């Protein structure tokens, strides 16, 4: 069946133009100012913005954390994703100690297979170098897992500096790249012990034991290690100006460094931890929310292209799950939901508030993640030959964020009550209409996406 989207404003990383889009067999066939109807089913997109499907390269679905499992699995999490215009996620398959990477990938394939409503791929989180030798890494690359994740914190996952050096060097040699969670684990442990000894057990203590300076220290150390390994790296969920300055310094000395941030770091700040009682637990994530000055730095860096992508770090826990840490903040499972609201938040509080252009929004949500994560031009652009993954955003239909109307398996929304200037109208996944008038109308059509080597030719 042919479908023709007419009269919409087509957004790319370099411009916005009124164009028609012809789709056939799940692929974009033509994009031009006027396409005749022929036998196509016509959809009028007048007055609407058409983006390439958003890509969220940082989600955690069905992830065991702190004795529980994220509230969203691949079923609910990817329904939420498409409702928010995200047509592809890259989640984190996770290697536990004693496992090979192939075993870990098999586990995550089973969790996702047949359950996803958007397309999906995996990064591989490496925690045990024993099971991550060259043959194992090659098996990942052959399976389309071309990016990796390394942690400098979390006891079960963290790699020591020497291990970071070895794996970064190996990944560089084999053509992979790693995203790294940067926080100084040992000092965080020491601060945590001090806080607990002093009887500070509430959720408001969480940001105090994970200060910005310890994120910046870890970013700096990572970049020093990456320099010795001569390896490019991605700093994930960057939160603060101090860490950003370390990245800029490494770039100035010639290193290749990419950076990602998330809506919560752009729009929420540490005042959330001052909310009454246990409310603050909703915002317990690592790294924690920072200051307004950090938000300004992150917005500016998105504009200049020094931060390339905005992902969500969707890692959701219900209030009941958060209450596991009622008596002790270290037992609160870390993370927040976000996969459903990223696009409309960036549109409303980025574009409509003059902090970014539509083109920049397209770059950080679609084009750049497609390139950095090895999916471009199959995904990330609206060009003949690309997958027909499209988001139609209605800039004239306001909305409001409410947990009760969302697809998440969640009983709260970090942005509850926030007004939206535009909302998602329709979403197409490889030509299939999966969201209509903001409602999910078709599910479980997601496919695994085998990804190639990262590209760096960002606009
Ligand atoms: N961000 C967070 O608190 N949880 C998810 C895991 C991670 O990315 O660190
Ligand atoms: Zn992380
Ligand atoms: Zn994460």
Automatic annotation (TrEMBL):
Keywords attached to this entry = Hydrolase, Metal-binding
Q: Which GO terms describe its cellular component?
A: cytosol
Q: Where is the Amidohydrolase-related domain?
A: 50-434
Q: How is it modified after translation?
A: Carbamylation allows a single lysine to coordinate two divalent metal cations.
SUPFAM superfamilies for the chain: Composite domain of metallo-dependent hydrolases, Metallo-dependent hydrolases
What domain of life is recorded for the organism? Bacteria
State its cofactor: Zn(2+)
One GO MF term, please?
metal ion binding
For the modification N6-carboxylysine, which residues carry it? 149
The reply on keyword Hydrolase is: yes
Q: Mind telling me which Pfam families this protein's record contains?
A: Amidohydro_1
Under InterPro entries, the record lists: Amidohydro-rel, Hydantoinase/dihydroPyrase, Metal-dep_hydrolase_composite, Metal_Hydrolase, Metallo-dep_Hydrolases_sf
Presence of the UniProt keyword Thylakoid in the record? no
- UniProt record similarity statement: Belongs to the metallo-dependent hydrolases superfamily. Hydantoinase/dihydropyrimidinase family.
The protein depicted here goes by the name Dihydropyrimidinase
């Amino acid at each position: 069946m042919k479908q023709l989207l007419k009269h919409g404003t087509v957004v790319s990383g370099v411009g916005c133009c009124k164009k028609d889009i012809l789709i056939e067999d799940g692929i974009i066939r033509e994009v031009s100012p006027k396409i005749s109807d022929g036998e196509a089913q016509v959809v009028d997109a007048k007055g609407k913005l058409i983006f390439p499907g958003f890509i969220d390269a940082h989600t955690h679905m069905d992830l065991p954390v702190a004795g529980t499992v994220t509230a969203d699995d691949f079923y609910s999490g990817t329904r939420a994703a498409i409702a928010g215009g995200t047509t592809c996620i890259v989640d984190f398959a996770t290697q536990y100690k004693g496992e090979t990477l192939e075993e870990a990938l098999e586990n995550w394939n089973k969790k996702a297979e047949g359950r996803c409503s958007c397309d999906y791929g995996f990064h591989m989180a490496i925690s045990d170098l024993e099971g991550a030798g060259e043959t194992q890494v090659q098996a990942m690359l052959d399976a389309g897992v071309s990016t990796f994740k390394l942690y400098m914190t979390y006891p079960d996952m963290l790699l020591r500096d020497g291990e970071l050096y070895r794996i970064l060097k190996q990944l560089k040699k084999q053509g992979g790249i790693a995203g790294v969670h940067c926080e100084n684990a040992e000092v965080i442990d020491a601060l945590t012990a001090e806080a607990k000894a002093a009887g500070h057990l509430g959720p408001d203590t969480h940001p105090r034991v994970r200060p910005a300076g310890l994120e910046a220290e870890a970013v700096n150390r990572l970049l020093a290690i990456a320099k010795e390994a001569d390896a490019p790296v991605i700093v994930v969920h960057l939160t603060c100006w101090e860490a950003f300055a370390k990245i800029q310094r490494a770039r100035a000395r010639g290193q290749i460094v990419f950076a990602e941030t998330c809506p919560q770091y752009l729009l929420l700040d540490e005042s959330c931890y001052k909310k009454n009682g246990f409310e603050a637990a909703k915002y317990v994530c690592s790294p924690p929310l920072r200051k307004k000055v950090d938000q300004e730095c992150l917005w500016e860096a998105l504009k200049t292209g020094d931060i390339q992508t905005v992902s969500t770090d969707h890692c959701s826990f219900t209030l009941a799950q958060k209450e596991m840490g009622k008596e002790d903040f270290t037992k609160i499972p870390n993370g927040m939901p976000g996969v459903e609201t990223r696009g409309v938040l960036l549109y409303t509080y980025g574009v409509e508030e003059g902090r970014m252009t539509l083109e920049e929004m397209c770059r950080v949500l679609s084009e750049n993640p497609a390139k950095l994560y090895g999916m471009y031009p199959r995904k990330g652009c609206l060009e003949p030959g690309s997958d027909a993954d499209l988001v139609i955003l209605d800039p004239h239909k306001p909305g409001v964020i409410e947990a009760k109307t969302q697809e998440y398996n969640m009983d709260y929304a970090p942005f509850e009550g926030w007004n939206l200037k535009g909302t998602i109208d329709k979403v197409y996944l490889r030509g299939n209409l999966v969201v209509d008038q903001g409602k999910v109308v078709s599910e479980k059509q997601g496919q695994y996406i085998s990804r190639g080597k990262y590209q760096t030719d960002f606009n």
